[in-house]
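[stage:ingest] chain + small molecule (threonylcarbamoyladenylate)
[stage:ingest] validated
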Amino acid sequence: MKTEFCKIGALAQGRAPDASDAEILDRAAAILRSGGLVAFPTETVYGLGANALDAEAAKKIYAAKGRPSDNPLIIHIADVADADKYCYTNELYRELAARFLPGPLTVILKKRDVIPLTVTGGLDTVAVRLPSDPTARELIRRAGIPIAAPSANRSGKPSPTKAEHVLEDMDGRIEMIIDGGECKIGLESTIVSISDGHLNLLRPGGITVEMLEEVCPVSIDKAVTEKLSDGERPLAPGMKYRHYAPDTKVVLLDGSDAEVADYIKRNAPNGKIGLILSDNDAHLAAGTDAKLLTFGDSDIDEAHSLFALLREVDRLGCDVIYARLPDKQGIGLAVYNRILKAAGYEILRLG
Ligand code: TXA
Ligand code: MG
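[stage:predict] done
[stage:export] tokens:
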């Protein structure tokens, strides 16, 4: 299959869609309505979209990604009120929607019959998301159907935050890739289960625990911060898979600036080491020949760059990559969750 690569212009820069944008989006919408696959930008990561009402189209997503069929898909809608067509909403949905939607929050509710079990991995619930990215919203609106979309990476690779990452993983496997530039947030949406009127956090993201707590009490699924033992199952089936893992071993360092600097100095001569550090911390590697990948100064910058950096890690040709253990405040919890998985839960306590 030939994969078309189409660049969105005006809309991706915050202006009204121009004629070229409209032509691309109408063509993409037609592909989706006829059962094909289109990758598109969102404010979190790129999604791999198909008609969420068509079980055959959803099957193509699992095939293109190499994704296990028990791992359910998120359906994307263009309007808060559309959720009622696909699931049984409640008061908590309306409160969260008023506060956070459109935006990087996915809610899980009991599904209605129109959503095929293929989309929900056999579950009687469905994950619903209303993205804020203008290209995503315009595409869903023009398609006139809900769009099932997991992250547009091959299963096991980091989620794509640039259209080039999607091309790397999906060239020849899908009909079209819409390039809307870099994703603003860079980590996947926050997922909350609210079908019983209580909020359970299944995956942390751009809508933080602190923000959610302004609306209602929050319980956090154990799988967010800990490795589950063999018999345990996370509430989001996808959280059990080994995600975001480069081939190079990644180890998280937990310690003060002095302890980290000392550890790097002692270990740099023992082999080729790589480091993922903030610009502020780059000096901790001074005087060593460690290869450095930096992401800016804040946890927001780390969230934005993490997946792109994890895609670069294997190109460095290092024996091991070290990163610092992020703190768990705000979006830090989402960075912590993703980088912990990339490191196979390996933390070195230096103190
Ligand atoms: O930001 C995002 O959410 C991106 C963009 C494209 O919207 N999408 C995304 O989808 O990250 P995906 O498929 O990579 O991750 C969806 C996660 C998986 O861990 C899946 O198991 C979980 O959501 N999930 C989906 N439906 C569920 C359900 N009914 N119950 C529990 N977990 C569910
Ligand atoms: Mg994914």
